[in-house]
């Protein structure tokens, strides 16, 4: 449903959507990457703290 709002111009006009500029895209990408970085740092911290990997790969 979200895709329909973005793709169809008639519906996009109802929600007053506008294209993002380059700075806004950089903010969006940065904000999207932050949770990934935090989770990876947390995993490394737990590995160092407890001396083992908490999240093991499935066999």
Keywords:
59 residues; 3 helices
> Could you name the ranges where pLDDT drops below 50 across 5 or more consecutive residues?
none
What is the tally of helical segments?
A: 3
Average pLDDT level: 87
Shape: elongated
Helix amount? 55-70%
Please, could you describe this protein's structure?
The structure is a single chain. With 59 residues, the chain is mainly alpha-helical. It has a domain of 41 residues. Helices cover 69% and strands 0% of the residues. The longest helix is centred in the middle third of the chain and has 29 residues. The model has no long low-confidence stretch (mean pLDDT 87).
Reconstruct the topology from this structure:
Layout: H1 2-7, H2 9-14, H3 22-50
Short description, anyone?
69% of the residues lie in helices and 0% in strands. It is mostly helical.
